[in-house]
Design goal:
8 strands, 156 residues
Length: 156
């Protein structure tokens, strides 16, 4: 009798846990699909930029140009970088319908290594930010000089 009761309790507990997990998965999916995406009103010309090989300690910048493709003015609330070596700037005033502007991504390379950094652009009234990426490879001064010398020979 005790074995039967324990078996029944184990079955009931397993069923309850499985049902709860399924319900959580369904509600998570519904929440994800109900979030508004900023790319419905802001269209970037490109979302990824490769600086190629850059010299250590020499800051570089790239402008990510975007257009307001919505019917109302668009406000960029923020642009947050994935690390402190990347400094984004963005327009602080509304971008009117059919107009363009830019989010600039500055990068100052302290470490010699390949890099990939993200900038998350938050548009007012939209839940999901747009992710921009910058990539490249940082070379030491000596390696960069060698790279430039071989690059010049290839173009001759």
């Amino acid at each position: 009798m005790k074995k039967g009761f324990l078996l029944f309790c184990a079955f009931a507990l397993t069923t309850a846990v499985a049902t709860a997990q399924k319900a959580d998965a369904v509600s998570d999916k519904a929440a994800a699909t109900s979030q508004k995406k900023a790319d419905a009103v802001v269209q970037f010309k490109e979302v990824k930029y490769d600086f190629g090989k850059i010299k250590q300690g020499v800051p570089v910048t790239h402008d990510f140009v975007f257009a307001n493709i919505g019917n109302q003015p668009v406000v960029i609330e923020s642009a947050n970088a994935s690390c402190g070596c990347t400094t984004p700037t963005w327009p602080k005033t509304p971008v009117m319908k059919s107009k363009t502007d830019k989010v600039s991504a500055g990068f100052n390379a302290a470490s010699v290594q390949p890099f990939e950094k993200s900038i998350f652009v938050k548009v007012a009234g939209y839940d999901l930010p747009i992710e921009l990426k910058i990539t490249g490879e940082v070379l030491s001064s000596e390696d960069y000089a060698k790279y430039e010398a071989t690059k010049g020979k290839k173009n001759s």
